[in-house]
Each structure stands twice: as C-alpha cells, then as structure tokens.
Specification:
Layout lengths: L9 H52 L22 E7 L6 E6 L10 E9 L2 E7 L14
Antiparallel strand pairs: 1-2, 2-3, 3-4
Length: 144
C-alpha cells in the first residue's frame, strides 16, 4: 500500500514567503510615497484663502505684496497645522510668492518648502508651483 503525502514542501513555502515579502515591500513603498504627497498637499489646502488676499492686493495696487502684513495677513507662524510650520508671503524669488515651510516628520524633512509664484495675466493670476527641496515625484499633481 502506497501512502500519499499531503501538504506543501519546504521549497514551496519558502517561495511563497519570498513572493509575499516582495509584495509587502512594494506596498510599503507605495504607501510611504502617498503619505508624503498627502502631507505636502495639506499646505496647498491652507493657502487657498491666502491666494485670495494676494489677488485682492494686486487688484487694488497693481503690484504683488512683499509680506504677510502688506497682504493683510497674520504673521507666517499663524498659518500652520500638523505638517506645515508656516506660510509667508515674500518678494523672494518674486513679489507675491507664497512660501510653505514644512515641519520635519516621518513623511517630510525639516526645512522642505513649496513655493507658489504668481504672475499676472489678462485672465487673472496664474500660480506657478515649484520647490528646491522636494523631489519632483512628491509634488502635488498641479505642481509637476
């Protein structure tokens, strides 16, 4: 009488664990990237009303403001959340530039920043989004 074995062999189990490990690594990398993008996007959500103040200043004065005070805003540190340290209006690199400074956490490095640079056109103000510290693939979709 031949006895038939059932179950998995050791090599089948090792191969299965290897496949699971590769898939887990890919999932973790993807999750990490999405987490970083979400943290960066919180800054863009905070500046939506500030862009209106810059626009209003431009309409009244035919030039962009050089500071938060000039635009009628509170100090830069008043605009913050769990990921954003401060938001300020400055003349660097161009007047009316809104700079978002991020806090260091697991998703973003301390000192990373995102700049929104305004330019006037006949249809209103166009905002160009750029960063010297954040990787291109981490920028929000409208900044790439």
């Amino acid at each position: 009488m031949i006895r038939q074995q059932s179950g998995f062999t050791l090599i089948e189990l090792v191969i299965s664990l290897g496949i699971i490990a590769v898939l887990a690594t890919l999932a973790l990398t993807s999750y990490s990237r999405h987490s970083q993008r979400a943290s960066i996007s919180t800054g863009l959500a905070l500046i939506a009303p500030l862009k209106l103040f810059v626009y209003e200043y431009y309409i009244k004065n035919s030039k962009f403001p050089d500071s938060n005070g000039q635009a009628g805003l509170f100090s830069a540190s008043n605009y913050s959340n769990s990921h954003v340290r401060s938001i300020r209006v400055s003349a660097d690199p161009a007047p009316g530039t809104i700079s978002i400074a991020y806090k260091g956490d697991r998703a973003i490095s301390e000192g990373d920043s995102l700049l929104l640079i305004p330019s006037a056109s006949t249809s209103g103000i166009r905002w160009r989004c750029t960063s010297f510290t954040l990787l291109g693939n981490l920028l929000p979709a409208n900044c790439r």
